[in-house]
C-alpha cells in the first residue's frame, strides 16, 4: 500500500530519484517500528485485575473509572508492567522510569511504589500486583498470584 502511494506521488509530482528514495526510506522506517501483529503504542493496553493501563494515552482506569497518575507514577508503573514477572532492582527501575542511576540515599522509587500500591492493591500491606522481592526490588505480577 505504501509503495503504491509513493509511486502515485512520483508520477503525479515528478519526484527526483533522491526525493523518491527519501520517501521510501521514511516508509520503511515507520514500518520497522511496528512489529507485525503487535499493537501500536497508541493501542497498547495492559489489563490486570480491575485495572487497565493505556500506554499510548498514559491513562489508567479502574472498572472504567479514570484514575489520575502523575508522570512519575506512570513511568514507574509502565516500567513494571513492561517487564511482567521479572524482578526489577531499584537501580533498574530508576533507569527504566527516569533514565538515570539510582542513588542509595534516594527513596523516590519506594515512594512511587507505595503510592501505586495504595491505588491498585486492595490491601497495600499485602500487595498482589506490585510485590517486593526482598534484597532485590519489585516485581509486577499481572494475575496477582504469588511471585
Automatic annotation (TrEMBL):
GO terms for cellular component: cytosol; protein-DNA complex. GO terms for biological process: regulation of DNA-templated transcription. Keywords: DNA-binding, Phosphoprotein, Transcription, Transcription regulation, Two-component regulatory system. It holds the Pfam family Trans_reg_C. GO terms for molecular function: phosphorelay response regulator activity; transcription cis-regulatory region binding. Residues 43-142 bind DNA. The keyword 4Fe-4S does not apply. This is Transcriptional regulatory protein OmpR. It comes from Escherichia coli.
Amino acid at each position: 500500500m505504501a509503495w503504491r502511494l509513493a509511486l502515485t506521488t512520483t508520477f503525479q509530482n515528478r519526484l527526483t530519484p533522491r526525493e523518491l528514495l527519501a520517501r521510501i526510506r521514511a516508509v520503511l522506517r515507520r514500518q520497522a517500528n511496528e512489529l507485525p501483529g503487535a499493537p501500536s503504542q497508541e493501542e497498547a493496553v495492559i489489563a490486570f485485575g480491575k485495572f487497565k493501563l493505556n500506554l499510548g494515552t498514559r491513562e489508567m482506569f479502574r472498572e472504567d473509572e479514570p484514575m489520575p497518575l502523575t508522570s512519575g507514577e506512570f513511568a514507574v508503573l509502565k516500567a513494571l508492567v513492561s517487564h511482567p514477572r521479572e524482578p526489577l532492582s531499584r537501580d533498574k527501575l530508576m533507569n527504566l522510569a527516569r533514565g538515570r542511576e539510582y542513588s542509595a540515599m534516594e527513596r523516590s522509587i519506594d515512594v512511587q511504589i507505595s503510592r501505586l500500591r495504595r491505588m491498585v492493591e486492595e490491601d497495600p500491606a499485602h500487595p498482589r500486583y506490585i510485590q517486593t522481592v526482598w534484597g532485590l526490588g519489585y516485581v509486577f505480577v499481572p494475575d496477582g498470584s504469588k511471585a
